[in-house]
Amino acid sequence: MRALRVDAIADSGQTYGGRAFNVGMREATLRRVPVRVARCGDRWVTDDGVTLSVLSPCGALFADGKNDVNENSVVIMLAYQDFRMLFMGDAGFQAEQRLLESGIDLHADVLKVGHHGSAYSSAPAFAAAVHPRYTLISVGRHNLFGHPAATTLATLHGTGAMTYRTDLCGAITVEPSRDVGATTTLTC
Fold first, then answer.
1. 100 and 30, same structural domain?
2. pLDDT of residue 171
3. What is the pLDDT at residue 2?
């Protein structure tokens, strides 16, 4: 919020004690940025034709496991003309399964992989349903969690998608067009 103009924040409503999250919420309050609890079916449309559709969370928030905060991530499908990009936040297997069971069209040109490509994201059935041309993994260099997991990378490779990782490629820019393209700040 210090570097970019933020008009609103979409949040799952999940209670969370994480430092970065709470600093962000305090910053939103100080800057009078509204925080909206997002639920499936919510849609925002911009003046230039971009549609953001909330696909998750749907129904009751997950409350039965140690990864509930991640599984309750806000999942959004961005659509612009014929281009579609699925943003999974930190969602993993439980949220993916709920999305598959909903029957919603998950196909996307680009998949922003859930939970930094952890071993608990991008199940084979989910990756097949999305069938992306590109996958993007936001992950820190030398992270202590071993992200992305080899199993997740293998699943993504099996979709035939080109995978870009921020730890290897730096910032990634996606050009939404008929011939979707991606550029990176580092050679990867």
1. no
2. 94
3. 84
